[in-house]
Structure prediction request, 297 residues.
Amino acid sequence: MLVTTQTDKQTKASHTPGNVSIKPQRMGFEFGEAVPRYWLDNNYLISHTMNALSVLFPEGEQFFVDSVRAFRDQIKDPKLKEEVRGFIGQEAMHSLEHIAMNQHVRDQGMPVEEMERDLKVILGLARQLPKRHQLAITCALEHITAMMADMLLERDDIREDMHETMRPLWVWHAIEETEHKAVAYDVFQQVGGTYAERAFYQLFATSALGVVASWYTGRMIANDLKNFSFRGAAKGIWRMWGKNGAFSSLIPAWAEYFKPGYHPWDKDNSELIARFKAEVEQYIAPKYQNGNRRTLQ
Prediction:
């Protein structure tokens, strides 16, 4: 009995709550003329910032997928194995939907192709790191996307600032980021990831994300100078980084990652999934309403 119990402890690696299901769903979002140029709070800076983040997603999420998939054969827990499949599938769907959004951004005259090419070079350098270090980067960035998702689902003011043509994409993305927020972390833990690795790469990944996102936002602003205003920029900076700002409010959640015993599901926000999932399902395009399991597996 003691041997069996110890084995169970070693192989049961998933900590995702039983009421959370990690399944990919293609949505088929379309972005046309109804989408305003400044779709978030009608603000120049905030909209360009979020457009810049969207450009990062397709290549970035492929990096996430590859870093987790590299350890799939080492996973012993059947539940975690299935969650890895779901994680890969969901990230594939995110890439496809943000490719559609990025085309809309490209149509506004933004240098999306150049930014995607530069990102491939940056991620190519990261791919030279040891595989477990790449996984640590993924864990760090998944923590950041998960806390942004939690903020979006919790804060009515953030969602209400989004134009109705863009809100469903970001709410859907936030739901799925919440569903799979612990998958990469659980894999990292099972394959021997250390506290030093995850702490260092959180600092590294946060810094890198900040630099690249700021660089990309600046490039978009440079292509839209005719509409720049100091007043609008100041309002955007305050909305993101001022008191209770969208990003400044995330600092305590970001710091939680450095607790030695931290786990992504220490904060169980699974009720937000149930709250918003039915609402967002009405936006599934008819051709995908019976589900779509195209993945990057």
Remarks:
- The radius of gyration is 19 Å.
- DSSP finds twelve helices and no strands in the chain.
- The CA atoms of residues 43 and 232 lie 6 Å apart.
